[in-house]
Amino acid sequence: MNAQGLDTDGCIAREGSLARVRPPYAPVVAAARERIAACFGPERLHSAYVYGSIPRGTAVPGVSDLDLLLALHHPPTPADRRDARDLEAALDSSFAQVDGVSVLLFDTATLLSERERYDLGWFVACLCTPLLGEDLAEHLPRYRPTSLLARETNGDLALLLPGWRERAGDLDPAVRRRLARTAGRRLVRTGLTLVMPRWGGWTSDLETSVEVFARYYPQRADAMALAARTARNPTDDPEVLAVLVDALAPWLATEYAAVHGLKAPRP
Q1: In terms of CATH, what superfamily is 18-139?
Q2: Distance between CA atoms of 182 and 72, rounded to whole angstroms?
Q3: Is CB count within 10 Å lower at the N or C end of the chain?
Q4: Per its UniProt record, what InterPro entries does this chain match (predicted)?
Q5: H/E element holding 160?
Q6: How far apart are CA 233 and CA 183, in angstroms?
Q7: Is the pLDDT score of 22 beyond 80?
Q8: Residue 265: pLDDT above 90?
Q9: Residue 105 CB coordination number (10 Å)
Q10: Which is nearest to 184 in space by CA: 121, 244, 139, 140?
Q11: Res 3 pLDDT > 90
């Protein structure tokens, strides 16, 4: 992988690896593998993946969360979702190293579908590290940092804004802090993919994303840097949320649509 996250053929390299998991997280990943297998079993589970800072080797104990994706043989049922929530709670309570656990559920037909080729398919192939089962990346193409990829991964930011504004006005500080973390991460990633084809690379690193974005939109650099800081250290400060949700996000959604177009609608 070069400095722009590409392999020798100019395709986006898979960013994580179990070999990069830092020692404090080795028992977390081992427990996740064991409990996923015990909970879902081969009759439901096709494969499981870990993504985010843990397989990238950048996780911070007590701060970073554990992110998992489970590919099921069939569309997730209410029982599957209950089991996933129980799994989240069990892993989160067992390890002080992680600040929250998230389990995404999808069926393999969706992950490999033409509709999701440049969204969930890219996510599995480039951002997810195999944990259990057959790697679905073997059935997906290799990806380049194109405008098509930018559109299909983050071209739906405008759809999130009404919900963000509602949560920003919530009286519960915990709700606002969760929003700050979610919005900060999404804004930085959307900012990076906005300029990704011009830059010609990919990264999940927040600081690098801000630095790359700022080369093309220096007038928005401070706001994007605030988004990155908020993603790392969430706050319930209404003034910070106003900058992110009421100023940066609407501008970014409009600019994104102008540059890359809107993401193909989902059912």
Answers
A1: Beta Polymerase, domain 2 (3.30.460.10)
A2: 25
A3: C
A4: NT_sf (IPR043519)
A5: helix 157-168
A6: 12
A7: yes
A8: no
A9: 18
A10: 244
A11: no
Enter the tokens of residue 150.
């930018």
Confidence of residue 102 (pLDDT cuts 50, 70, 90): very high
* Residue/partner pairs of 107-113 with CB below 8 Å, 24 or more apart: 107/71, 107/72, 107/73, 107/74, 107/75, 107/76, 108/46, 108/47, 108/71, 108/72, 108/73, 108/136, 109/75, 110/75, 111/71, 111/136, 112/136, 112/139, 112/140
pLDDT of residue 63: 87
Q: CA–CA separation, 228 vs 248, rounded Å?
A: 12
Domain residue spans of the chain: 18-139, 147-260
Half-sphere exposure of 181 (CA within 13 A, CB side): 13
Instruction: Give helix 173-199 / helix 147-154 axis angle, nearest 10°.
Output: 170
β-strand pairing of 45-51 with 66-72? antiparallel
Q: Tokens representing 24? A: 């404090």
C-alpha to C-alpha distance for 208 and 92, rounded to whole angstroms: 29
Position 25 pLDDT exceeds 80: yes
Q: According to the model, what pLDDT value does residue 169 have?
A: 94
Give the tens place of pLDDT for each residue, 203-257: 999 999 999 999 999 999 999 999 999 999 999 999 999 999 999 999 999 999 9
Let me know: does 46 contact 134? Beta carbons within 8 Å.
yes
Specify the 3-state DSSP secondary structure of 112. Answer: coil
Residue identified by tokens 């400060």 is: 237
Tokens coding 13: 């390299």
Q: Which two tokens stand for residue 215?
A: 């080369």
With H, G, I as helix, E, B as strand and everything else as coil, classify residue 206: helix
